[in-house]
Amino acid sequence: MGRKWANIKDKKAAKEATSSKVFAKFGVEIYVAAKQGDPDPKTNRKLQSVMERAKTYNVPKHVMDRAIEKAKGSSDETYSELRYEGFGPNGAMVIVDTLTNNVNRTAAEVRSAFGKNGGNMGVSGAVAYMFDNTAVFGFEGNEADAIFEMLLEQDLEIRDVMTEGDQVIVYAEPEDFHSVQEALKADGVTEFTVAEVEMIAQNEVSLSEEDIVTFEKLIDALEELEDVQKVHHNVSFEN
């Protein structure tokens, strides 16, 4: 799974380069999580998970607090979680996860981004079956075997644990996200470089240099959209 981790890491680094937009998107996600449940992260696991993810992107505390306070207030903004699927050049597959308060606007913008950048929209389920929903954690360390054994002792379903550079990478079942994260914290992990639930491609594809340029423009166009929270794909950027 090393290449899959590399794709996640590269995507995260690209998002951090446009931090103001990332902060705004996390603000919406935190607001929705707090509005749908208890606005206290101690009792709302979904909110807690979103805030833990936000920390890995260095989202300031005041941004998170402001979103929670908005949810506590009289705001009646409602958001829908929608997923779009489509194709890029030469068989590339793309999944776009959105949070929107205007479904028609989001659908039109996503469709336009595909159409203007060498891709096309597919129907629901067109590509998602080729991806596995996976909890992914990254943190500094080199004791993958010990981490794997510790997590198994907690009766957690772990898909893989590996060392890559100075990082330990854990792949787990998405429904165990909170439990795995708490077990890692209890074992001494104090900071995560990645704590995400990702749609990871079962098989990656390589594109020509020309198609890579087109594909990167497509991904950039999608991630620039205000309502897009995550973009997943099956393209390897490694040679």
From TrEMBL:
Similarity comment text for this entry: Belongs to the TACO1 family. YeeN subfamily.
One GO BP annotation of this record: regulation of DNA-templated transcription
Superkingdom as given in the UniProt entry: Bacteria
One cellular-component annotation, GO: cytosol
Domain TACO1/YebC-like N-terminal: 3-73
GO terms of molecular function: DNA binding
Pfam families: TACO1_YebC_N, Transcrip_reg
Keywords: Cytoplasm, DNA-binding, Transcription, Transcription regulation
Predominant subcellular localization, coarse grouping: cytoplasm
Protein known as: Probable transcriptional regulatory protein CNY62_00745
Subcellular location: Cytoplasm
Domain TACO1/YebC-like second and third span(s) in chain numbering: 79-235
SUPFAM superfamilies in UniProt: YebC-like
Gene3D superfamilies according to UniProt: 1.10.10.200, 3.30.70.980
